[in-house]
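FIELD: query
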Amino acid sequence: MIRLPLFRGLCCSLFLLICHPNFAQKQADDYILKADGQKETGVILGSFENDQYNTVRFRSAAGGTGTFGPGDIQGFGFQSGRKFMAIRLPGSENLEFVQVLLTGKLSLYKANDKFYVNDGREIHELKAFYDKATVAGRETRELKKPYLGTINMLMAGECSAEIYDVLADTKYDDYSLVKLLSKYHYCEGITYEQHLPELPFVRISPVIYGGVTYMSMSPASRPENRKDAFENHQTPIMQIGIKAHQFRRWKRLSIDVSVGYSKLDNTIISEYTSESQYMTAKEVFSASTITIPAFVNYTWTRAGSFDSYIGIGFNSRFSSLESEFAMVDQTLTHNGVTTIYETEFTSINEKMTTAAGKIGVVWNFSKKIGLLAELQLDYLPAFYQVNLPFNEASYNQTNTSLLIGLRF
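FIELD: result
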């Protein structure tokens, strides 16, 4: 068994790892394009790759750090393949960093959730907007798609008929527009390059955890002159489940659902004193619990291959208690008669669903595999009932679980 000071030390170590993950340094595989066109490798500083940048902080491979705007450099790019260039868009007098999704005869740009196509002579905005419409007497919103006409005009040629079906189904988003323009260049036999990583909408990964749960008790209701002591406050726990993560659109979000099992062997010793009697009791029991925790997690910081996150959710538990030995010793003060009898006096709430929270850190040492460390907490009101004859008490239980896991 892990002693309480060691358990607290492990929890503190996890907390420090989550809050100060700066020891993990990103590899120098990003780059900037200087004003003279020279490419310099290094690291673009920041937790996450964003879709919009006003300035970019860059640390070169030589160690120098600087902040650059669209007037200082031609552009920059990430190890993942994403690329930004300093471009003057239609209707604007200033340069701004624009995400380049595809380069070719028709280059595709994105800025402020709008898309543009550069045909080499002019940059054309791809427009889409909602307009009010009345359907069956009800007012609704209808998406207008003038961008389809603009693209159709720009792609006019021998491949127009072949790509018409793709054009008709093209949505106003990154992947759909890149797919359309890629098919156009391929059909025309024109060289092109994508700068948008091909990512699934979401990645689903199995996870397995092992660890220990520390339980602290507090009285929910207890008569005066009553004492109860639980001897064991910790138990091993195992969990297995799935994690939805690496959402294409919501990079900081993840969702996980698990099924866990734990078994606690424990002993409770009770004492009650009043003017009429003195009572002691002891019960040895084992409590088995199946848990189903579910969390929505938010990653607040990333340093290299380390992500730190916080999660909120709920924990459903199904518990059973089996008594191995129970004895009550009751002495009446007015005549000194002592009665000893065997009777079970401890029970638990068999079905509960309560709010839960956690903090954690994951080391992504490959695209699929990650090592996780989590601190999970939940609170069980009136979980234990300890009912001596004509003398009832109930106890809240607070669970703090330290888990180490593997995501595949």
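FIELD: remark
The chain is about 10% helix and 60% strand.
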